[in-house]
Amino acid sequence: MSFWKNIYLNRKELVVLLVLKLAVVLYFNWQYQLYWPANQQQGWAMLGNDTSGYMRPLEAMVQGYGYDSVCRMPAFAPLYFVCYFIFGSANVLSALVLFQVFMSWISAVLIFLILKGNSVSNQRSLIGASVFLLFPLIATYDHLILSDSLGNSFFLVAIYLAWRAKQSNSQMLLFLTSFFLVWSGFFRQIHFIFLPFLFWYAVPKWWSFSKVIIKKLLIFIFPFFVLVGSWAGYNKMRTNQWIFTVAPYETCFGYLPKPLLELRKLMIAMGGDIQPWVKGSAGEFFIGKEDRVPFQEKQFTSNMSEPELKELKRQYQNFYYRNDSLAGEFVIQKSNEYLEAYKSEHPSQFYFTNRLNLLVKFVFPNHADNLPGPAIHEMNIFQKGMKAFAWVGMFLINVFAFFCVFLSWRLARDWFVLAIANVLLILILACFFGWIELRYLLPIHSLSLLLIFIGTRSAQFPWKKNNTP
Q1: Kind plus residue range of the DSSP H or E element containing 42
Q2: 277-326 tens-digit pLDDT
Q3: Residue 231's CB: how many other CB atoms inside 10 A?
Q4: Which has the closest alpha carbon to 163: 205, 115, 120?
Q5: Over the range 67-102, which residues count as b (16 or more CB within 10 Å of their CB) and which as e?
Q6: Is the dihedral of CA 271, 274, 280, 285 positive or negative?
Q7: 204-222 pLDDT, tens per residue?
Q8: How many CA atoms lie within 13 A of 289 on its CB side?
Q9: Where are the domains of the chain?
Q10: Residue 163: what are its φ and ψ, rounded to 5°?
Q11: CA atoms of 305 and 269, how far apart (whole Å)
Q12: CA 117, CA 150: separation in Å to the nearest integer?
């Protein structure tokens, strides 16, 4: 079957999605120009705290020094080289942003095609793609030089190619599915979890292990082994260590020294949010100026209560702000002691309650990150509306991510495996790692939107006249 056969798209949908994308881009660029720190703006590109970690090794590479970082996989490398040699060093970041915007629009077009090809009406397919384009917590990352925008776009390209590979039984499309998912994983390593699920989706009855299935499996895993293996071999040659993704935190990030890593383990074990920029979080208490202990009395142990936690905070801040090495040793020792006591004295909280608490904070957060703009009390009605749209939309999409497991089983059985993978990613991030930063939700939001519209494709809305006799 030809790749282009049954592509359900015409000029009208392309224009509508393009106009929407341009409107969203202009709005966010305007807001970023007004409210993002001036020293973190470079043309169209907005720089985040992690930007240098991605760009500095690439700058060294184009100067002939090689890719010298084991802390970020070289996902940007081919794109950076193209933009660098076409637009020059002064405009390379702006060119990358324009490419991110373009890929975001392409992602919306692919969402439309997937929905339309799964018997969703033309109108609903266009609505689904438009929601993706307009959703602030996805659109905002197109302007930031971080891993999120392109990681999510290439993830959606992989989903589309898997769907086409399933339709056409094409081995080339299966190969490209894996290639783009692996490239997405180079941006966000957590995306690698989708590899077996996407193969399961694209190759029905894979468990038969016939010669045809084994051949498809070898084709599918080939990009993973070649690309990740080449990266690991390069690291072995340069550092004499086998590093398959990235090096540990303590190796890579000076702002995450060992005392903070041990302290974070304690916070997560007690169900605390480690993000210091979230008001009322455990991270804000230990790292910032918040004095109110964010834990309840029932979480204290025989060797840890409010005075001990405040002393732990004081010692950590002595270490971090005054370079007091003895304070750092104190934090490591006490964090480990308190953690062991907590696991022993509150096993039900440690193994169940607190993990559920982190899941709730992840799925139903009380904040919306990385939206440029003033403080809430200074926002105009439009800015408040955008903030409300982001928060309410995030709440609804996260709820439906779980509901889609049931929905896909009942109404879209072939998508069930991806609905399971979607929920599994949420559970792993929140309950296993304790990482509840909202940027991790981008692929979850994108896949959930697809599943919602596919799962409800036959739903009759009350304002629609039912012509069925």
Answers
A1: strand 41-42
A2: 888 899 999 988 888 899 999 999 999 999 999 999 999 999 988 888 99
A3: 19
A4: 115
A5: bebbbbbbbbbebbeebbeeeeeebbbbbbbbbbbe
A6: positive
A7: 776 667 888 899 999 999 9
A8: 0
A9: 11-243+374-406+424-455, 252-345
A10: -65, -45
A11: 15
A12: 24
Point out which residues pair with 42 in neighbouring strands. Answer: 45
Share of the chain above pLDDT 70, in %: 93
pLDDT tens-digit series, residues 100-157: 999 999 999 999 999 999 888 889 999 999 999 999 989 999 999 999 999 999 999 9
Dihedral over Cα of 108, 113, 119, 123: its sign: positive
User: What's the start-to-end Cα distance of the chain, in Å?
Assistant: 38
pTM of the model: 0.91
Phi-psi region of 372 (alpha: psi -120 to 50; beta: other; left: phi over 0): beta
What pLDDT score does 1 carry?
Answer: 42
Which residue's entry shows tokens 């997405």?
184
Instruction: Please answer whether residues 71 and 79 qualify as being in contact, where contact means their C-beta atoms are separated by less than 8 angstroms.
Output: no
CA–CA separation, 409 and 460 (whole Å): 19
Q: What is the DSSP string of 355-381?
A: HHHHHHHHHS-S---S--S--GGG--H
Give the separation between CA 362 and CA 436, rounded to whole angstroms: 5
Distance of CA 121 to the CA centre of its chain: 29
CA distance 372 to 27: 10
| DSSP code, position 45 | E
Instruction: Read off the pLDDT band of 446 (50, 70, 90).
Output: very high
Task: Decide if 217 contacts 434 (C-beta within 8 A).
Answer: no
34 burial type by CB count under 10 A (0-12 exposed, 13-18 middle, 19+ buried):
exposed
Alpha helices (H) in 188-244, listed in sequence order = 194-202, 211-239
Q: pLDDT tens digits for 40-80?
A: 999 999 999 889 999 999 999 998 888 989 999 999 999 99
pLDDT score at 410:
67
Residue 460 has pLDDT above 60, yes or no: no
User: What letter represents residue 194's amino acid?
Assistant: F
| 416-440 exposure pattern, b = at least 16 Cβ within 10 A, e = fewer | bbbbbbbbebbeebbbeebbbbbbb
Are 451 and 408 in contact, with CB atoms under 8 Å apart? yes
Residue 304: phi and psi, rounded to 5, are -145, 120
Beta-carbon contacts of residue 360 (< 8 Å; ≥ 6 apart): none
* Total number of residues shown for the chain: 469
Query: What's the gap between Cα 345 and its chain centre?
Result: 35
